[in-house]
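The records we work with from here on pair a chain with its fold. These numbers are not coordinates but entries in a learned vocabulary of local backbone shapes. To see the layout at work, look at the sequence and tokens printed below.

. . .
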Amino acid sequence: QMNGSALSFERFAAGGMPSPLVDSSLMAARFAVPGLPNGAIVPAGPGRGSSLLTYKVSIPMGMLSPYYQGVSVSAGSTPDRWHRLVGVEMSLRSGTIPAAYLPGFSLMLGVSESLDAPFRHRAAAYSEVRLIP
């Protein structure tokens, strides 16, 4: 939690994918929620939130992991409102192939549906590829 005098760029916002170009430690106030647009969850009223609460329940079943997730960003210490999603993610991972000079990779594909306004019943597909040297 941050104090009330925090600058607006230091306040929490949730939504979107993690940045592929900027280290996550430099964007600590931004919480990635791939099934929502970038910065979609902010508190009611001006500015961004001083509190972020989140949970994610996932059941790994082989390569597939269905999940239920909730996120709340608020200007005070209590949640303004929860934004919930249901979805499923698929993950693949490969090791490096030294003989062919190929790096390893991890691939994550997902689809989710928002349960709350303003994105209610909106489905989103997302993917992430990471190279592993």
User: Anything to note?
Assistant: DSSP finds no helices and seven strands in the chain. The first strand starts at residue 13 and ends at 14.
